[in-house]
Amino acid sequence: MEIIFVRHGQTDLNRSGCIQGSSTNEILNGVGREEAEKAGSNFNSKKFDVIYSSPLKRALETAEIFTHDRNDIIIDDRLKEIDFGEWDGQPVAKIEKKYPDAIDSWGQVGQSYIKYAPNGETFEELNQRCGQFLRDMADRYPNSKILVFCHGTLIRMMAAHYLTNGNMNNFETIRNCALVKFNYHNRSPRMVYYNRVLYELTKE
């Protein structure tokens, strides 16, 4: 099995440095659409046997741009971003000032955040959700090429589930519209690349 994960394009919440979990359903902004169009123009989705997407607008819109509106995209709720509960939509800088122990040294939400946002999803729950999806893909499509459009923290956890028993500390959040690829053979995953970018936007 070959599986490639693609992070969605930029949204206004991304640009403003806000936490963007599953309860935020932003569309792509102009930059995000341009990212998806430029990356998609350097990518051939026709070589994939099956395409999956998160149901959230930012991921599905990216999928439709990348795949030129192919009508066979499978929507799967397991691919939603982590639910950050009360923190969804909040500026990271504001959260970090109030709860510095819940933001790691790279500026990412750490697993202890759940103390302050008790309605959120734990990292352990996210790991279980990612593991279930990955096992399902291996069972259904053992010899296929799979393309998945989803979210930054979710992709970190997909990689962590495969390689570090769910510890995301060694994985950065990939750029918008960047790719992560794994090969899976005899129940053994290998990372082929991480945070591969297919575009560069002109800076004005």
Automatic annotation (TrEMBL):
<feature type="binding site">
    <location>
        <position position="58"/>
    </location>
    <ligand>
        <name>substrate</name>
    </ligand>
</feature>
<dbReference type="Pfam" id="PF00300">
    <property type="entry name" value="His_Phos_1"/>
</dbReference>
<dbReference type="InterPro" id="IPR029033">
    <property type="entry name" value="His_PPase_superfam"/>
</dbReference>
<protein>
    <submittedName>
        <fullName>Phosphoglycerate mutase</fullName>
    </submittedName>
</protein>
<dbReference type="InterPro" id="IPR013078">
    <property type="entry name" value="His_Pase_superF_clade-1"/>
</dbReference>
<feature type="active site" description="Tele-phosphohistidine intermediate">
    <location>
        <position position="8"/>
    </location>
</feature>
<feature type="binding site">
    <location>
        <begin position="7"/>
        <end position="14"/>
    </location>
    <ligand>
        <name>substrate</name>
    </ligand>
</feature>
<dbReference type="GO" id="GO:0016791">
    <property type="term" value="F:phosphatase activity"/>
</dbReference>
<dbReference type="GO" id="GO:0005737">
    <property type="term" value="C:cytoplasm"/>
</dbReference>
<feature type="active site" description="Proton donor/acceptor">
    <location>
        <position position="81"/>
    </location>
</feature>
<dbReference type="InterPro" id="IPR050275">
    <property type="entry name" value="PGM_Phosphatase"/>
</dbReference>
